[in-house]
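hi!! sorry for the late reply, been swamped w classes. u asked for the two structures so here they r. pasted raw, havent cleaned anything up. first the sequence of the first protein and right below it the tokens
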Amino acid sequence: MASVFKRKYTKIVDGKKVKKQSQCWYIKYRDADGIEQRVKGYKDKTATRQKAAELEKEAELARTGVVDRYKEHRQTALTEHLKNFKQYLLDKGDTQDYARLTHNRVKAILTDCKFTFIGDVQPSRVQRYIAERKQKGLSIKSCNYYLTAAKTFFNWMVADKRIDENPLVHLKGQNAQKDIRRQRRALTPDETDVLLTATLKGPKHHNLTGKQRYMLYTLALSTGFRASELHSLTWRSLILSESQPSVTVMAGYAKNGKEATLPLRKDVAELFRQWFEDSDFSLDDKVFPKFNKSKGAAMLRKDLESVGIPYQDEGGRYADFHAQRHTFISNVGRSGATVKETQTLARHSTSALTLDVYSHIGLYDERRAIEKLPQLHNIDNKKSERNRAVAQRTGTDDKPLESTQNRSKKLTPKLTPFLTPTAYPACNRSSAIGNEQDNFQENGNNDNCLNSEKLDRENNRLATVGTGADEMGRGGFEPPTHGFSVRCSTN
């Protein structure tokens, strides 16, 4: 039930506190959302009561959906709402750069589409604006940023009880992977070493000395921080203790809007600790005060070209400043870290983004991974070991024994010892291969050759095998099931 009242207050008159009350009457009632409101009325109490009844009636109708509870906001220009939205972003801790960029993107859509009030907003016109920007050369990724900014603005209006629903809620961004304008690559370990070594001794450019750029690149390659994040760091952001060194980027400067603390390698922490002690820094100073984050790519390009490292490779991939983040994430993956560990250090929302976009591996990494796979299990291990042992004695190039027997008739005579006497310098052709029936008779007088009379059948000795003199030229050398070959003595 609405009520009317006069506000009471205390005023000092002639040094004394005097209680006063307002000349106008005020109205207290609950709106459609059940929130208590206080509205200034009139000097006339009756007129104020009439207005209170009207407000209460409107609230009741709004609760039942009969009256537009957002009437006041619908009559307010969108540009005014947009100003309030920008202030909201700043109040919740976003940076000036982010708030300004988001504001400008939304303003561009509102202006080009000629949206004055909330009732003018049409999703199809916004979709047409995005399509036209794409036709003019804007990348899909950038088009998605514009759409995201507009949807975020209207989501805020819903949350702030200015409208009942987001008019752009059903619009979806396009697949940015289909239109990658700038592919990046990871630097190899050799390229990284060459770059850092040369930069440390390099001349000053882009307002940074060689030592300052060396420290900047080292921290970028050790943390994967973006240019804006590195620019925001102060010496308070670095914990350089020997036990658990780390570096923290504040939420307002992180892309995902979350504060992040990453561990530092102890050698990197020691490098920065020594730099802090040798320089005239204070804890509130920025670590890289003269670093221009918008010129990071141009700065790195000059250092890369000075040592002969291509800024853009044959595949069209760039080694710009952001590529150092790709290098960091790829190196984490190569170190043997799990997918979850890599995703966490990369500060990505999904592992797919980490693996598909930021992880770069080459043939060497693939081969190393393959070599780490366990050896496949052979069901017939004993048979496999026996075949390998036989293959070494028979010279079948590690082929299984059964395979050699099945294919022996297909061997050409050129592969037989009979036609390769140079491999048996102490044996003649006829004594190289024989059988138990006629080999002794044909070669009995040859002291340089082994024959069946000199060999027995024990497992630990060699035995002569053969196909017979008539079959030598036609079939060549065929080992029996024992797999033993003829050995010749050189005595």
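now the second protein. again sequence first, tokens right under
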Amino acid sequence: MKIIFFGTSGFAVPSLTELYHSPHKIETVVTQPDKRSGRGLKVRFTPVKEKALSLGLNVEQPEDILGESHAKLNDKETLNLLRSKDSDVFVVVSYGKILSSEILTIPELYSINLHGSLLPKYRGAAPINRVIINGENKTGVTVIKMIEKLDAGDILSSLEVNIGQDETAVELEARLSWMGAELLLDTLNRIEKGEVSFTAQDELKSSYAPKLKKIDGLINWNKSAYHIHNQVRGMTPYPCAFTSIEENGIKKLLKVWQTSLETNPKKGSDFKPGTVTGINKDGITVQTASGNILLKELQIEGGRRVSSYQFAMGHRMGIGAILGEE
């Protein structure tokens, strides 16, 4: 089949790669515009654009959107461009813009989307992060027939997977991206053979996974160790969970990159939540509202990521130090 592929982030790269090496033909790749970032504000290509160019594929980057809050792709130039292409299916994977109904109905058959959750749960921009933050032990990938309503179309296929107790959003995304690529290719093959079925989503079971904000990473030590561990795992790599520490009378931001739970948690404690209760080569132990949590990797503002033990030694942190104190 002839495909127009829409994608932007690294999550979409395995899907693009699998489709390129399949019997299906990618007519063109649509991705978001280049952005300037980092020191010197260098122009950065999207991960999908980098991969598409390496494969010798044509790339289009329409810029017009109808309102930043809606991020809806629907300008006349883009419509004419897409209509000029001969396509059977539009494939959308982590594109980042809402496609209008006019665009979704352009291909000969229909438009499909690979989503990083078991729909109808966790619709929206951050399903992989939110499923970890919420302490779920299962998730998956789903392919749907697209409608203009966000992630609400009929389900064509899905695949479930367990989430590891210490698995981070980065690690889970990598796994799901390749699983999703294989599921997507299988679904396209079944579409071509006319063997696909459509299952309506149960709206009563739907939930939303909004885009992460920096404030979502702020650690509240009055939560349980389990809650904070999930927050740290789900906030990587952005915005990253964080707290603060006072040095020489100056409060500094402290990113928490990695944690683990106590294997044999002690009952009860006289320490205030946020208090350092132990330091050894395994890391820094901090009291929470329920149990202790082991901080394993930290990064103070302006510094580099280091093991928590290195941090404690370098910053002369001792037992009784309090993190995140107002």
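hope this helps!! also noticed smth abt the second:
Residues 65-71 have pLDDT under 50 and may be disordered.
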